[in-house]
Amino acid sequence: MRSNGLVKTIKFKNPVYVGDPINAVKIFNEKEVDELIFLDIDATRNRTEPSYHIIKNIASECFMPFCYGGGINRLDQIEKIIELGTEKVCINSAAYLQPELVKEAVGKFGSSTIVVAIDVKKNTFGKYRVYINGGTKDTKLHPVEYVKRIESLGAGEIFLNSIDLDGTMAGYDLDLIQMVSGTVSIPVIVCGGAGNLQHFKEAITIGGASAVSAGSFFVFQGKRRAVLITYPEYNVIKDIFSD
Amino acid sequence: MIAIIDYGLGNLGSIQNMLNRIGVSSLITSKTEEIKNADKLILPGVGAFDVGMKNLNDFGLLDILNDRVLNDRVPVLGICLGMQLMADSSEEGFRTGLGWIKGSCLRFKFENGSGLKVPHMEWNEITITKPNKLIGEFEDQRFYFVHSYHLKCAENEDVMAESIYGFKFTSAVSKDNILGVQFHPEKSHKYGMQLLKNFIEKY
Prior knowledge:
Low-confidence stretches of chain A: none
Distance between the termini of chain B: 13 Å
Largest sheet of chain A: 9 strands, mixed
Shape of chain A: globular
Largest sheet of chain B: 8 strands, mixed
CATH topology of chain B: Rossmann fold
Mean pLDDT of chain B: 94
Oligomer: heterodimer
Order of helices and strands of chain A: EEHEHHEHEHHEEEHEHEHEHEEH
Order of helices and strands of chain B: EHEHEHHEHEEEEEEEEEH
Strand content of chain B: 25-35%
Number of helices of chain B: 6
CATH topology of chain A: TIM Barrel
CATH class of chain B: Alpha Beta
Strand content of chain A: 15-25%
Number of domains of chain B: 1
CATH architecture of chain A: Alpha-Beta Barrel
């Protein structure tokens, strides 16, 4: 989300407006999506508070579990977001800048409520590095090192995002997924690069991810990236993961 | 009129919205008069057992709920913590529960290395153990669960459905006008919608 509209980016750049969040939720309800994640991608950089009225509307409208993230850096924000009916809260930059916040939030709300998002990009030497602030600031940390730290803070889940593959629909970064999933015992949800159903399967069976997520894959159709929200039928999903 | 009991816990908005979607109006309330006039009650809940019981007490709801449920026998649906509060007690706290369903709530405990985490947080299936009008019949039916405690019924005949998470646990209960589901129908899209529809139309 950005300025209260839904956007999709490519490698975290060039956001393209794809629609209104509430409309999207209604469509995903119809399609029986398992879980929704809404991330306000500008909140940290713009230092804005979470849009509570939008969160409240999404939470009420959403007939499946929903996770909200973006600019979360205080306990009272997390409390308010949960009170509004959100199942999980996602923390990204703050997990690096204020690790005690993750610990406190886990203590107060339970680990299953707190997801920590990790955005990863390869630096100019081709080494994986964790970035914060909407992918603009290099922490100089390798994801494996960082994720161990996050696990010890008690986070319930890791949301692992590949900046390099974001929006490209070229496939997930299986090496990255394998490295991170192999390092921690908490569930890793992966994002960034899904372009077809086979990619989902690979992320789980080869990468070792606990769950897969996608954005562009469900929102764009065809080479010209026409906006059309889709989602596979449940029996198709069951088939992909059946063997 | 359906009264969704407001005692400070639970995703009341989602439940009301789902009811709106199926064309049923409801009132979110903690007022005795409004609960008195309701045709059916929904007792939601997310959070800790003792906080739930304390809030029910502090909001002055215990008498009216007992009266409507046990005397008037109005249909009541407990959801998640709402269902657990219907028991006699819970390992999670020290307070006495509503005692509408005999039994107590136990914490999920798994050995290290079992790979099973607490809380049980996932979409899961249920197996109906007692014929009932509440739960729909869909192929691939599943519901969203998020809980660390489960209700162990003292009377087997109160168990309406079971699910598996490491072992079989009770995922739904029923006793006369009293119904409870451990999962969240309001977060289980079409399956939850059908369940709420059945509650409204068939009880």
